[in-house]
Structure formats: structure tokens, C-alpha cells
């Protein structure tokens, strides 16, 4: 009975470690995938922004910049 409890605990611990590693990997990938936004009319040249919004020069909606 003690062996069963020990083996069960070890197996559950291994699955927990795998799950937390997977979540950390997904979070890191998402952070590396930050989008940049720029004015489609290029009013400000190559200037980019980290958030959606409107261009301060022409008030058009900023679009995602493809890298």
C-alpha cells in the first residue's frame, strides 16, 4: 500500500512538472509575439506603436505591422 501511494505521488508530480513547463513555454512565446502598429498612410515615417489606437497626425486607425 505504501508503494502504491509513493508511486502515485511521483507520477502526479511528474505530470505537474510537465504541465507547468508547458504553460511557461506558451507564455514566453506569447510575450515574444508582441504586435506593433503603424499608420497605413505612413504619416510619421516608420514610427510604430505598441498598442492599437489612432494616428496622432491624421487620426486614422493604426494597423498591425507585418515583420
TrEMBL record:
<feature type="signal peptide">
    <location>
        <begin position="1"/>
        <end position="19"/>
    </location>
</feature>
<keyword id="KW-0732">Signal</keyword>
<dbReference type="InterPro" id="IPR045800">
    <property type="entry name" value="HMBD"/>
</dbReference>
<protein>
    <submittedName>
        <fullName>Heavy metal-binding domain-containing protein</fullName>
    </submittedName>
</protein>
<dbReference type="Pfam" id="PF19335">
    <property type="entry name" value="HMBD"/>
</dbReference>
<feature type="domain" description="Heavy metal binding">
    <location>
        <begin position="37"/>
        <end position="63"/>
    </location>
</feature>
Amino acid at each position: 500500500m505504501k508503494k502504491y501511494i509513493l508511486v502515485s505521488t511521483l507520477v502526479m508530480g511528474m505530470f505537474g512538472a510537465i504541465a507547468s513547463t508547458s504553460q511557461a513555454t506558451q507564455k514566453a512565446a506569447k510575450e515574444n509575439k508582441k504586435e506593433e502598429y503603424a499608420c497605413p498612410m505612413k504619416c510619421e515615417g516608420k514610427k510604430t506603436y505598441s498598442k492599437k489606437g489612432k494616428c496622432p497626425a491624421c487620426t486614422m486607425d493604426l494597423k498591425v505591422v507585418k515583420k
